[in-house]
């Protein structure tokens, strides 16, 4: 079982299925939401994700049809959800257990912070691919 939680522990989750490949997103909204050079994410099927502490979850529609969910107490980003999909976008910084997933690529490199250099030789996509 894969588990995760927010910094203060009020929101937690379990994943009963597979976690998709890891993608590092450098878009402006991910950088601002996480206060970091990029956000590492992976897809998880909705039916495999169980959330506890939902009363502490807040949300923000950062772009049309995409909502980000985070702990209202400590601010930890937990996941994002796009309309009309059957998966969520898990924010890997909230994991408590290790993953077997592999890194796939960097996306939105066209919006990458100029002070960060990508050095891990993964494919780089200028936008979302």
TrEMBL record:
One matching Pfam family: GFA
Superkingdom of origin organism: Bacteria
Domain (CENP-V/GFA): residue spans on this chain: 2-117
NAD found in the keyword field: no
PANTHER family xref list: CENP-V_GFA DOMAIN-CONTAINING PROTEIN-RELATED, GFA DOMAIN-CONTAINING PROTEIN
SUPFAM superfamilies per the UniProt record, alphabetical: Mss4-like
Organism: Neptunomonas phycophila
Protein name per the record: GFA family protein
Keyword Lyase: yes
Family of the protein in this entry: Belongs to the Gfa family.
This protein's UniProt keywords: Lyase, Metal-binding, Zinc
